Amino acid sequence: MEEQIERMDAIAEDHAVVDGGQRKISLEPERIEDGDFVRICSAGAGEVLREVIEEVLARVDDFGTLERYIWLLQFSCGLCLLRDLPVGLSFEINKVIRSVANLDTEEYQFDPLMIHTIAKSLFEDIPLKGMNLVHVIKKLAVLNQKLFSYVSIAMIFAGVRHYTRPDQPTRMYRLYGLSEVLDLLESLKSDHLQQKSLDIQRIFLILKLLSCYQNVAILRYSQDARPDIEEQHRCFGEFFIFREEHKRSYLRHLALALEVVKRMSGRADHFDRLADNEDFMLVVELLELDMIPLVKDDLGEEE
């Protein structure tokens, strides 16, 4: 890894840190306005929203077709992102999402085309990007429902590809295995070696999405036996089998990213001085305090 770090030094030296500049990274979702919500869902916003939610909850079992199910998911995700939410609706919104998660989706959940269709409709029609994407993925993934997990993973890597290859639209929203993730990280590293500077906001979003992948896939299923994985995920089983050598390779990529970001900051030997540049500090903290320790813990390594 030392050789790789040395090859990145030119990037670190050429990257200018502007003290006192405006922060580029936000930890909060960007949210959507009432008008965007109406466009996405063709449903009323503002105070009318309370009545719409009540009607949806009363008829949630009627959303049996794929088209209606997609609308229901778009409606749920739109609710999570609304900027100006009427007072007292947070509980009802969570109730809507839980109700959607409880619907029987067995006929959809193992069909790659259905996962593509649902993920594409959320990612492109809302559309989801930035911390809005991260926020929705977390909302879906925390419910531990298979279809939500599959759609979340598909959107995670649609997002990663968007921030690594913005000129190449996603043609297929699908699951990724860890070996493919490693190939993606290797490609990303090669791209960065050819650049004179790096976009710290883009790096943060890519890492934030990978952190979501860690939580929804690696850490959730890493310790499960292969027969259990294959029984749970059927045709998707291979995507949830995490070999130790792949996890260690993934950990090395994270460690390299941490070292590069520290060098980019110009303060690799003085971590406490990163406080004068909050963007870099947030990326370092994400790697050093969240992503890397969780993978090490999964591997049984001590800090």
Automatic annotation (TrEMBL):
Protein name: Uncharacterized protein
Domain of life assignment: Eukaryota
